[in-house]
Amino acid sequence: MDKILVGLKRVVDYNVRVQVKSDGSGVETDGVKMSINPFDEIALEEALRIRERGDASEVIVVSIGTAEAQQQLRTGLAMGADRAILVETSDAIDALSGARVFKEIVDREGADMVILGKQAIDDDNSQTGQMLAAIWGRPQATFASEVVLDGDKAKVTREVDVGLETIEIDLPAVITVDLRLNEPRYVKLPDIMKAKKKPLDQIPLGDLGVTPGPAVNAVEFAPPEARQRGITVDDVAGLVSALKDKGLV
Amino acid sequence: MSKVLVIAEHDGAALNPSTAKCVACATTIDGAKIDIVVLGASVSGVASEAAGISPVARVLTVERAENEHAIAAVFAPQVAALADDYDYVFGPSTAFGKDLMPRVAALLGVNQVSDIMSVEGSHKFKRPIYAGNAIVTVEAPGDSKVVATVRTASYQAADGGNSAPIESTDVNVELPTHTRFVELQAGQSDRPDLQTASKVVSGGRALASEENFEMIFKLADTIGAGVGSSRAAVDAGYIAPETQVGQTGQIIAPDLYIAIGISGAIQHLTGIKDAGTIVAINKDEEAPIFEVADIGLVGDLFQIVPELTDALS
Ligand SMILES: Cc1cc2nc3c(=O)[nH]c(=O)nc-3n(C[C@H](O)[C@H](O)[C@H](O)COP(=O)(O)OP(=O)(O)OC[C@H]3O[C@@H](n4cnc5c(N)ncnc54)[C@H](O)[C@@H]3O)c2cc1C
Ligand SMILES: Nc1ncnc2c1ncn2[C@@H]1O[C@H](COP(=O)(O)O)[C@@H](O)[C@H]1O
């Protein structure tokens, strides 16, 4: 296999307790720590392992977003990606347009595999990979917890609600990754220095011929209904009687 | 009139309860006329189950050998073709629906509305984002079809008692062969399914070993509960992945949820916010799980759980 594309989305770090702005116009992102979407780190780790086994020659990380996403791409390069592409846009992009962007880059690069996260932890959409596979007319193996390559085929084990499903797909294909696929490597300081010299192309969204929309537009943001802290019981007897009071046991 | 097509989820033998929940969501659309489509190799049993759901107008069946397993790349073109006659196409936000529906949406050239929690208008919906830390009201374009997944924990299954007509249809589309089913390793368990269980007992990292998880099973069996877990417990190999509750696991809404040795990370809490009563057992009184627990008990689980199991036997 020649090239693997990996999506790296810049998102609010998973440890941040996200707050909705008081005017309901969005969530607070000012001064908030931003990171690579955790699933995308796993996607990149998998691509790197495939390359390190000699089953691919190049790993290209791709982000769609503002110029600030260069930070996340540099981290991806420090992890070991060969090249980065930033598709620059100031607006949030809808999933279908995101998929079209990936399709355009697949065509330009002649990629054989695209590995994405199973979901972005900001919009929690879980759409982009499936949509890319649809418009590309290629297989999708979503929620992957194991990927075994075999020439121009791959066996992928998927985390489904009742257990683990294994499917076989022909390449090229799209894989979206679940948490247990691998544990991403840590970035070492010398790698960060090396990453500064690796190529990072910036392409304005408009140059790809993708016009966003028709989007599902956010109208209003609100905090979730809060659950109240209840009672504390002292011992098992107290717990049993509280459960009995509620008719639960 | 608003024509809604619900994609049935099933395993060839039985209809998944997520289907009746999608129907429940669809009934909240003004003037909804709801059909269910069952794709499979041989689906007469599943179809009659679907026909029992109220107020379904019609059940369509698409039977062909290629549909034996729910392969998204195989189902999607068929669903997209059937969608011609509908304004809305709904599937559950289970692994099945999350895999299939975005592929359908892309074939129809629209974005998907993921995880509908409530219908606010003909094209307006509420859905959770940021692991449930924010609820956003979204509006889909008024002039195009709505393809959506329904957050099953937000809905009670629609009632039965119906006997909708069942019609078999042919969908003439070419199906890809690039994706092939190999096997399914289903967790063998006689315990209630997490999605439908009225009680769930969950264990976290604190259980510290696979053997200790027996304690959780014993308590669960004593009260007829399903068994859940945190990601940390699954990652450590104490219990099977399909039991994970949370943002990236199962989103559930049992009447009673007992969290044992689970800290209450936001990614876990998002999976249980619709639970009736949350009980937390944790030795750290500062654990975030207590902020959402209806009943909290601070202490060592290795002492409390056997005692509780005895008391409830
Ligand atoms: C993208 C992403 C998605 C995620 N999705 C999920 C998800 O879907 N579900 C999920 O659960 N997590 C998820 N996580 C992980 C989550 O952030 C937490 O790491 C995880 O939930 C912690 O599991 P835990 O509570 O079992 O472990 P810990 O946080 O280690 O908590 C263990 C708890 O046990 C208590 N304890 C220890 N010993 C005892 C004892 N003897 N008796 C009583 N109590 C004791 C401790 O006080 C502590 O509170 C996700 C993380 C990321 C980044
Ligand atoms: N703006 C983006 N930049 C890079 N990758 C993205 C972007 N949006 C989505 N992706 C990829 O698609 C996956 C699923 O995203 P989503 O469909 O938004 O949940 C993410 O985990 C990324 O791998």
Q: What brief labels describe this structure?
A:
heterodimer; A: 249 residues; alpha/beta; Rossmann fold; nine-stranded mixed β-sheet; two-stranded antiparallel ribbon; 6 helices; 27% helix; 31% strand; globular; B: 313 residues; 2 domains; seven-stranded parallel β-sheet; five-stranded parallel β-sheet; 25% helix; binds flavin-adenine dinucleotide; binds adenosine monophosphate
Summarize the structure in words.
The complex is a heterodimer of chains A (249) and B (313). Chain A has 6 helices and 13 strands. Chain A is α/β, with parallel strands linked by helices and 249 residues long. In chain A, a hairpin with a 2-residue loop joins strand 7 and strand 8 (153-160). Chain A starts with a strand and ends with a helix. The mean pLDDT of chain A is 96. Chain B has 313 residues and is α/β, with parallel strands linked by helices. Helices cover 25% and strands 28% of the residues of chain B. In chain B, the strands form 3 sheets. Chain B has a 7-stranded parallel β-sheet, with helices on both faces. A 5-stranded parallel β-sheet of chain B has the order 13-12-14-15-16. The radius of gyration of chain B is 21 Å and the shape is globular. Chains A and B meet through helix 3, helix 4, strand 7, strand 8 and strand 9 of A and helix 3, helix 4, strand 5, strand 7 and strand 8 of B. Strand 12 (217-222) of chain A pairs antiparallel with strand 8 of chain B.
